[in-house]
## 1
Amino acid sequence: MSLGPVMLDLEGTALSAPERELLVQPAVGGVILFTRNYDSPEQLGALVGEIHALRRPRLLVAVDHEGGRVQRFREGFTRIPPMGSFGQVYDRDRGRARELARTAGWVMAVELRAADVDFSFAPVLDLDRGVSSVIGDRAFHRDPEAVADLAHAFMAGMHDAGMSATGKHFPGHGAVVADSHKDLPVDERPWVDIQAEDIVPFERMIGYGLAGIMPAHVVYPAVDRQPAGYSRRWLQDILRGQLGFQGVIFSDDLDMAGAQLPAGGDYAARARMALEAGCDMVLMCNNRPAAIEIVEALAGYNDPVAHMRLARMHGRRELSREALRRDPRWHQAVAALDRYGDDPSLELDLK
């Protein structure tokens, strides 16, 4: 059985019988975890192990664990600073900021890998233009080259821990005030402005080997009337064609207000439109009836190229939490992040 095109969520800290039945359906390819699925590192490891044991190839297990406001697992995990804090350091000391970002990427990823979580949807590649409350300090910086530089360091840390990176939200969510969780944002800027700034971090990161990209539920009418996640123009012509991206395209959550189809349609229609536009996997979260609708509608869906792309997202370099706790590098990195969180003016002391 290949990995299907649907990633869905779970209700609690252990699999229920209906969830086990749903996860073995052919259209399912992954699970995204939330805070409600977490109680302790030991419980998390057991839950992920049970998910992975359901089928072969094993289902992908992902989480939004960027740091700052968006860190799903807290107790028992190192606190990761918001990415914008590294941007503040970057303005004073670029080398130190890169080392901090790389350290944060490694700690975030290695702790998740110790629970066998395959990947985190990180890093954010949007620009912090000071207008989007939903992005804000989730972004590294306002300057696109600074974002690319810091994101590259963060991704290098993730790779060192055995985790692939997923950049979001293509082609950039930072210039709109509206929150796509609640509304459909519209970015009226011309293509030349988006290309000159917002796309730069994505273009740089693709060159550095970025494995995954998540498009924004945002309309850019100067380019296409469809939201980016439903747009062949954005995903096929620009992302795959002009930018040469060969990795996985994940939709953002199709239950978000920004994912409503302009012409109407059910949830299965949303999923089909995203896949037809160029997504390899669609996310449906916090709406179990809609998830079941999509899984049933896509039961016969088959895309061999997407299967190969998705298989590359599996985590590498397995390790136990006990082994991690014995690793001097982990202790040193955690201490450095803790010191930085207490006082950002402290010098970073890493070897």
## 2
Amino acid sequence: MSARPPSKLLMAAELPRAVFGAVELAAKAPMLARAPRGDGRPVIILPGLVNPDWANFAMRRYLRRLGYDARGWGLGPNLGARSVGKEGEKLDALIRSVHAETGQKVTLIGISLGGMMARLMAHRWPEAVREVITISSPFAGDPKATNVWRVFELLTGERVDDAAVVANRALMEREPAVPTTAIWSASDGLVQGSICRTDECRSIEVRSGHVWVQMRAEVLLRVAEVLGGKP
């Protein structure tokens, strides 16, 4: 049976859960401070649909405090091909530039649509990408098992059944030649959690909605633990 979109009840709970998560963040600071320290490696955080870099400020600041070279993508709001180029050439250039600048492979952390892009980039540039961490990214199934596929089409100008989009989905569902981790939630109100992971990638379930998932304390801690090599 194919996956179905999350219920209307879960979708309606997205905003209050997002606000609660943001408020909770300060209270969880002592827990977050116990995460493994970073090693200075470059990390690029790719935002979700329509989100700009500032939406990820909490994660970027947290990872910098741990000791990582955490960066935004600098391409404005994520509007799919309208932001990264028809063939993803702007994102290609960014990854190759950071790799050349630092002399190190780049870790890609992608939220939702950003995570889908991150997996594609890992397939294209395994020599420049160290690992991929996706957060609430529906890369592994029917795009209509979400409550946002029509919004995706409207904002990006791409259709989920376009040949290029279908081909990209088939590629991103396959495991690239770098380590991958999928952080997902069964109670996500916008995307079905079952299409945010595969049996081949490392899978970490959290309790969270979709909106502002990148600001949830549990998500930040899990990201830090993956980067720090915690089993």
